[in-house]
TrEMBL record:
Keywords: ATP-binding, Cytoplasm, DNA damage, DNA recombination, DNA repair, DNA-binding, Helicase, Hydrolase, Nucleotide-binding. Residues 147-202 are annotated as: Domain III. The keyword DNA repair applies. This is Holliday junction branch migration complex subunit RuvA. Has three domains with a flexible linker between the domains II and III and assumes an 'L' shape. Domain III is highly mobile and contacts RuvB. GO terms for cellular component: cytoplasm; Holliday junction helicase complex; Holliday junction resolvase complex. Transmembrane segments: none annotated. It comes from Nocardioides marinus. Residues 76-95, 111-130 form the Helix-hairpin-helix DNA-binding motif class domain. Belongs to the RuvA family. SMART domains: HhH1 (SM00278). It is found in: Cytoplasm. The RuvA-RuvB-RuvC complex processes Holliday junction (HJ) DNA during genetic recombination and DNA repair, while the RuvA-RuvB complex plays an important role in the rescue of blocked DNA replication forks via replication fork reversal (RFR). RuvA specifically binds to HJ cruciform DNA, conferring on it an open structure. The RuvB hexamer acts as an ATP-dependent pump, pulling dsDNA into and through the RuvAB complex. HJ branch migration allows RuvC to scan DNA until it finds its consensus sequence, where it cleaves and resolves the cruciform DNA. The keyword Hydrolase applies.
Amino acid sequence: MIAFVRGPVAAVSLSSAVLEVGGVGLELMCTPGTLATLAPKVGTGQTATLPTSMVVREDSLTLFGFLDEDEKTCFELLQTASGVGPKLAQAMLAVLSPDDLRAAVAGEDVKTLTRVPGIGQKGAQRIILELKDRLGAPLGTRAVAAPQASEPWRDQVRQGLQGLGWSAKDADRAVDEVAPGPGESPDVAALLRAALRALSKA
């Protein structure tokens, strides 16, 4: 198994990033929050290190990349629940941080879990039942993405939302709704989660 990947960021798309490792470009499927931290490094030669999880299928090998080990651990635990595959697990981490997930599962908060596209009430109840004793309590710590420069965050959040299936109109509305106040430093990962919550409530 490939535990992590380290190398210059060669490219970032709406759903993945390519890191160059030994002259080979490895594509990692990532959440929009993780991609937002990598976008400023494209073409600069800056090295990134991402914990990874490999999903093996009969016809494919897919690498998923994560912001930190905590996110990777949650991704792998989520897939032990019935009906949760890698894509749904990644969607859950795009909407909720690992601690938010732990809090929702520990508190049997079905409403929070159903904010994730693809999870209905029954699915949320099943996840709570199967993972309540495995995810554990919120840790209270989280690596925070470095603040981005003033306006580029808008494009990054908008592209992340569209990559998850929202229309350009909905994405623009959500971006305006979560825009930070004057003088505040935008945290793209946090703004993206706030935008997803806003869209899920609409």
